[in-house]
């Protein structure tokens, strides 16, 4: 896997730039060499030195072009951990969006087929996969996954099925046709109603190990007075349903 872009860092400044790119800042113009690699240093015309770093997962979340609210790293981590995604897995994904989850899956070596109904979102996601260095592993298709279930069943079986769409329950109903024996299902929803429908569909489809989680993360505040969870919001992002094919 080769990143098509690198992170150039100076103190609290970070810029996602491609080899050969020229970028102007108040610290000077950055000219990225064509043969740049991680670990190099690039100096602006004003003498400011930037460190060149390879992209990591959190960098993708922070810097890839967005077409909406991407899946948060905490949710991606749960999906990766509960499905055990790894190199050689075949993943069927729906609701590509920005492509954060698809990029993470591709970067661990999985082969991903991802569906996005919005043409413009799909185009941005394809560009993001190039930036993330996984364009050869992530096939972003424009279309509605529910309209391709029969043909995808023939393309399968898939090791993992990940869904971030409002019509996820309709796909879950066909999960047993799409997943290999022992394959994993992960459904993300911002609303509990959609998660409930997906859970009921998973039960009707005969899936096992059905588990539903609410994802909440709170930062900690440390001061001379003491330590406590931050009061700046509850840190709720959404709900994740996990299940497994028999």
Q: What report would you give on this structure?
A:
Residues 74-221 form the tRNA (adenine(58)-N(1))-methyltransferase catalytic subunit TRM61 C-terminal domain. One of its GO terms (molecular function) is methyltransferase activity. This protein has 246 residues and is of the alpha/beta class. The chain has helices at 57-63, 73-83, 100-107, 119-131, 149-155, 168-172, 175-178, 192-204, and strands at 6-10, 13-17, 22-25, 28-31, 41-43, 49-53, 90-94, 111-116, 138-142, 158-163, 179-189, 208-216, 220-222, 227-229, 236-244. It has a seven-stranded mixed beta sheet, with helices on both faces. A four-stranded antiparallel beta sheet has the order 2-1-6-5, with no helix packed on it. A two-stranded antiparallel ribbon has the order 3-4. A hairpin with a 2-residue loop joins strand 1 (6-10) and strand 2 (13-17). The two termini are 33 Å apart.
């Amino acid at each position: 896997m080769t990143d098509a872009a690198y992170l150039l860092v100076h103190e609290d400044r970070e810029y996602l730039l491609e080899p050969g790119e020229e970028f102007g800042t108040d610290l000077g113009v950055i000219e990225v060499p064509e043969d740049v690699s991680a670990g190099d240093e690039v100096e602006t015309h004003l003498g400011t030195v930037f460190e060149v770093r390879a992209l990591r997962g959190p960098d993708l979340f922070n810097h890839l072009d967005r077409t909406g609210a991407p899946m948060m790293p905490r949710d991606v981590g749960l999906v990766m951990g509960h499905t055990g995604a790894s190199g050689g897995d075949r993943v069927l994904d729906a609701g590509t969006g920005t492509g954060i989850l698809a990029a993470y899956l591709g970067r661990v070596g999985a082969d991903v087929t991802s569906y996005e109904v919005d043409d413009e979102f799909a185009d941005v996601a394809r560009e993001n996969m190039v930036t993330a260095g996984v364009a050869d592993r992530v096939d972003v298709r424009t279309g509605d996954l529910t309209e391709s279930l029969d043909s995808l069943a023939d393309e399968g079986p898939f090791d993992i099925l990940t869904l971030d769409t409002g019509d996820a329950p309709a796909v879950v109903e066909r999960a047993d046709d799409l997943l290999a024996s022992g394959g994993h299902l992960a459904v993300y929803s911002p609303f509990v109603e959609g998660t409930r429908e997906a859970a009921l569909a998973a039960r009707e489809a005969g899936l096992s190990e059905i588990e539903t989680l609410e994802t909440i993360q709170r930062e900690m505040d440390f001061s001379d007075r003491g330590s406590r969870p931050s009061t700046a919001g509850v840190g709720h992002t959404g709900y994740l349903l996990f299940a497994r094919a028999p």
